[in-house]
What does this fold into?
Amino acid sequence: MNARAAEAPGRGYFFEDFDVGMKFVSARRTVTSRDIAEFVELTGVLNPLFVDHDYATELFGGPIAPGQLTLSLALGLSEPVLHGTAIALLSLDNVRFTSPLRPETPIEVVTKVVSSRPTKRPDAGIVALANAVRTDSGETLVTFDRTVLVKRRGDG
It folds into this structure.
């Protein structure tokens, strides 16, 4: 089953709703130079790669975004799938930055359910998700796995 995350119900999916192999595609977002500048200032990631246009051009052919920004945007873009049903992010694993994100590039996140298992908690289960951030042309920028504790149906 494939679904667009933006078409997820007003509330995210409950533990019981996740089937192994389900795939979600997030809404798209275009990252701007201003987004990059604000993230760099907020986090203190003042590496010349992100604040010096000439330096970034010399190394990467132009400005790029910090990988941490790309990862943060990925978590936000894919949030509708878990909106109001995620209890806790348990882990982020196998993060791989394969290409830089450049300003004015639209991105989306493809999320696939890898596994799910009940817990001792009667109100929650664990869902493992594989994620890929890709551009509108299909280039993969970042891949990562995450494990989330998710509410079971009936827990409000």
Remarks:
- The mean pLDDT is 92.
